[in-house]
Specification:
Elements (H helix, E strand, L loop, with lengths): L2 H14 L10 H8 L25 E5 L7 H6 L3 E6 L2 H14 L4 E4 L13 E6 L10 H10 E12 L25 H9 L10 H11 L1 E9 L4 H5 L5 E8 L1
Length: 249
């Protein structure tokens, strides 16, 4: 089985067991968004600055690996035309159920983002891409595809794992693994990952993730750091994630 299929099935199981990022927003949160009161997250704890978006009414937005009914309902409430692409069936189902219940339209595609995206060039005004590159071995092709399907002056918003979580044990105390973290190149690590139902995850460097955006042609305009939101690293305020804003000139 390809690692992408393993990750799809793993995330499905997480969702069924109450995974935080597989729970749609509440009806109350959706109603607040309709009234202009809203926040969305690329990383665990810090809301994305509203100025990173601009006016979303009438804009075409792609939620890339953004299923689960957490961000897309907000964008729809703000008047955007939304498409969500996610490899997890459960995440797509939650997105669909929420949209049907609240009565708005969204295009939902269960699709592997490591492949060429199924959209024409210059389709979207904005791509919202929460933390998910940790489930992909090669991230640079994803940024190139984002550049292709964005319109000129389109915006790419990304949540990125900086890799530090991969080096520690489960308690976040002792150093356990070396970087880069890649189970496909370490049989024991692969076996451990499957046994723990963690899927096949990968660490990525600053050069790969931010450098990859620049290499694709994007101009970086802003960024911030964030923590896990729990555990020892969070208690010591050690950043584990970045969020970036870039545009296609």
């Amino acid at each position: 089985m390809k690692y992408q299929e393993i990750n799809s099935k793993t995330i499905d199981s997480w969702c069924k067991n109450g995974w935080q990022w597989g729970k749609p927003i509440s009806q109350e949160e959706y109603q607040k968004a309709l009234n202009g009161e809203w926040d969305v997250f690329l990383t665990p704890t810090k809301a994305v600055p509203h100025e990173w978006f601009g006016n979303l009414k009438g804009k075409k937005i792609l939620g890339l690996a953004s299923g689960g009914g957490q961000q897309i309902p907000v964008f729809a409430a703000l008047g955007a035309e939304c498409t969500v692409l996610d490899y997890s069936r459960e995440q797509c189902d939650r997105e669909r159920e929420f949209a049907e219940r609240e009565g708005y339209n969204v295009e939902i595609l269960q699709f592997d983002m490591t492949k060429r995206l199924p959209f024409a060039d210059e389709t979207f005004d904005l791509i919202f891409h929460p933390v998910s590159n940790c489930y992909v071995e090669e991230v640079k092709p994803i940024f190139k595809e984002c550049f292709r399907v964005l319109k000129k002056n389109g915006i790419l918003l990304c949540g990125l794992d900086n890799g530090i979580n991969f080096i520690f044990d489960e308690e976040g105390i002792a150093l356990k693994y070396k970087l880069p973290f890649n189970p496909l190149k370490d049989p024991q690590l692969y076996e451990d990952s499957i046994k723990k139902n963690e899927g096949i995850q990968f660490s990525h460097t600053l050069e790969e993730q931010i450098g990859g955006q620049l290499e694709a042609g994007f101009a970086l305009t802003d960024l911030y750091e964030d923590t896990n939101g729990y555990g020892r690293l969070h208690e010591y305020n050690i950043p584990s994630f970045w969020a970036t804003r870039a545009f296609k000139a």
